[in-house]
Every structure is written in structure tokens, then in C-alpha cells.
Fold CoA pyrophosphatase.
Amino acid sequence: MNKPIAKNGQVAFRAPDFFARSKAKLSFDVPPGLFDPNIIPASGDPGTDKMLEIVAREQPVRPAAVLIAVVDHPEPTILLTQRSAHLNDHAGQIAFPGGKIDAIDSSPLDAALREAEEEVGLSRDFVDPIGYLDLYGTAFGFRILPTVARVRPGFQLTINHSEVDDAFEVPLSFLMNPANHQVHSKEFRGMERFYYAMPFAERYIWGATAGMLRVLYERIYSS
């Protein structure tokens, strides 16, 4: 896993620049590892990669999709949610709108848009999908395919409190600044596992959400 390196303000975080970079680097090709347990999504951290190999042997693959909704303000933001405190999995954690891919979904993109509508009431009319980010694996067996999208301002959200307690926006400039990408670690079955955390005000963004944001930074700004 790469350690964060400050860019000394060299990276531009204007909306047109971000969307132009994203359109040039992303596509809607679905990676085979989304459904194939024999393909392990690479994380860049050997401990995490080993963990994903163990999980793939013990649990069925659980394909999922999330929406990285970049709101097209002059100073762009990313829409995040705080999961409801009563949920069995990841209660109270910060997440992207999204969830598992169902049989009714025609594509991972369709699943991400459906989940965003169900969780926070984000209308598809405001969403301009750009492409898929890299496949991301988690310790719970999920294979997550994020869709990066431009979201036109002016939308009205309706929070589904059975799934989400809150929805909020974080400046893209904060999330794409590697100086804010903290690296934490914990033990998993005798192996040290590293993960990212990006605390913002009272919000603690970490785990898979922070990991996917780091991947977004690496794909769009450092590759």
C-alpha cells in the first residue's frame, strides 16, 4: 500500500478538470473478478490481499455496486451517507450509496443507481455516469464495483431511515488530498492489515469507503 505523499497544492480540484480526467481514464468494462472467486482484487497491501484470498475460500462472492456521486459545484463535493445505527452490518459507518447487485439489475451501474434512489432518494435524472473504478474486495466477501458519476446540483434527497441515518457532502479537495489519507492497521488472523482513514470534522471515514477514495485518487490524479 502506498504511503500518502503531499502534492504541495499541485493538483487541481476544479470540477471540469476532475470530470475530464475521469472520462479519459474510466470505462464501463465490467471486470471478471466481480463474479469469479478465483480472481482476487488487488489492494496493493500484501496483508489485505492474503485476507481476501482466505475470505474467497470461505465465503461466496457477494457482488455489490456503489455510486461515487461527485456533485458538480464550482468546488466539487462527494455525496456520502451514514448507515443506520440499527443495521446488522457496518452500523453507523460512513459509506457511499450502494449495496448488493440483485437479479433485477441490468448492470452494476443500474444497481448503484437503484440503491442511491432507495437509500437517499437521489433521482437518476441528476446523475451522469462516467465509468467504473477498480474492483474493491472486503473482508465480508463483498466485491464492490464503484461507479463514478457527475451529479448536477439542485437535487432533493429523501432519506430512507431504515438504511441510512444521514447524507452529507465532503469537498473533493479534502478527499483527493493525500495529506489527509491516514494509514492505520489492525491484526487479522495473525496478519497485519493496513487500511485508510480520512477523518473529516465529526465524520470518521475509514475502511472500504476510504480505500475506494484512495483508489479514486490514484486512478485520477497519480496514474
